[in-house]
Amino acid sequence: MADWSCGRGRALLTVLFGVLLGALVSGCWVKGVREERQTVSVYVSGDLDLTRLSEAAALVNNGRESGFCLWLFCGDVLGNRSATAFMDGSAQVELLNASGVDAVVLGPEWFELGPDRFSFLVEQGRFYFLGANLVDSSGEPLGHPFMVKRFSVETLGLIGVWLDATDTRFGLNRVEFIPADFAVHKTVPLVRPRAGIVGAVVRPKGTVPDWGLDFAVGTDQEDIIAVVPPARSDRIVRLDLSIQDGRVVDFSIVEEEFGAVEPDQETGRAVDSVLAAIDSIGSCLITESTVQLSPEVLTRALVDGYLKQKRALHTSLKKEIPDSGFRSGATEVDGFVYDIPLVVDTLGPGPVTNSSLVEVLQNPGRLVLLVLDGREMKSLLQDRSVSLEWRHGLRSRRLVLRKEYRLAMTLDFLLRHPEPALAGYELDQEQFWVIAARVLASA
């Protein structure tokens, strides 16, 4: 019995020793894999320059061939005036898709296209519109609050944040701003379980709360790994993160200049196609002008024509839709408010094209439509630089202090006179240059 017990004890010890040795060996092997360093390169572009996009794509593609990387645009993507006017944001989305961009930082310039148009473009994009603190009236993100991307062993998460709470474009109905620090504190816990490394991408340049962040793009603060976008359109910045066991153990920042590699051919073809479409739309003839139109004369003509078109649309809809289903204020525009000419240069004599019209307009995009009562209008008109043009039928009437009026104005006007935007506003369905073209064509 004793011999059997001793034999059984030795066998059990042998099994336990084998299990323990296997666990130790296995643990050392797993630990060895986890401790292997992995470098992830974050390429950062500033404002989008359509003519240099294929060069930037070539540099990023080289990085993708040699390692792990992602590409961010931390700047104004809609800055090309003609592309935005003629293609209403679709040109930029199409080219960002073609070039393989991973994400852009969502800014209020996108909302100038109107909420419905912006929602459509988000659906068309094969990249992230990062904006954790830009939401609709129900609190739902207008873009994507964050993104997560896995690179072999390591996973990286990014949060997008807009820092300027004073932008008047947040007065637009269905658009709301959440304080940046609150958004970061709320979003990081959602990202951290999904990603070992978490960064924030911010616009405009400023300070982002670093609670739970490993790095930040769009800031130069010293309490965190930080990188700012390049100041020049012929450069791209590369942030190399050396990651080990879910931690950033080292980093480097390199600014690369275009020209070191040949432009990416696929992106170049996409750019050429889009630019050709823009040129085609821009070259369309609106009218032949026999005289030179000054900014002041053209402004009055466009304001008067705009009000007449809106009145005609209102009258037409009122006839087509039964009274029970027609809201008289939905399409009516009572007046147009401006403080500087809507046109920055003379137009004509000679052919007037879509391009020449867009070039001279102060803001070719959608106009602001908002409701003010007579008291608010009286306060606004105390500024002698402000002019008000009534629609036909109201020009001979006095301002009624308790009555509400629906007014049109440019977004630039609201930048100089932000008080009317506090109550909220909407945007016209059509871009102003389209309406202006119809006015000139019928003159």
Compact summary:
The chain is of the alpha/beta class. The chain contains twelve helices and 20 strands. The chain folds into two domains: 36-278, Purple Acid Phosphatase, chain A, domain 2, CATH 3.60.21.10; 284-442, Alpha-Beta Complex (5'-nucleotidase,  domain 2).
Which fold does the CATH topology of the largest domain refer to?
Answer: Purple Acid Phosphatase, chain A, domain 2
Unreliable runs, pLDDT <50, ≥5 residues?
A: 1-9, 11-34, 324-329
In which range does the helix fraction lie? 25-40%
User: What is the molecular shape?
Assistant: globular
| CATH architecture level-2 label of the largest domain | 4-Layer Sandwich
Q: Please identify which CATH superfamily of the largest domain we are dealing with.
A: Metallo-dependent phosphatases
Number of H- or I-type helical stretches: 12
* Highest CATH level, the class of the largest domain: Alpha Beta
Q: Report the structural category.
A: alpha/beta
Tell me, rounded to a whole number, the average pLDDT: 89
Number of structurally distinct domains: 2
In spatial order, strands of the major sheet run 4-3-2-1-12-13
Strand content: 15-25%
Mind telling me the C-alpha Rg?
29 Å
End-to-end distance, in Å? 117 Å
Kindly state the number of beta strands. Answer: 20
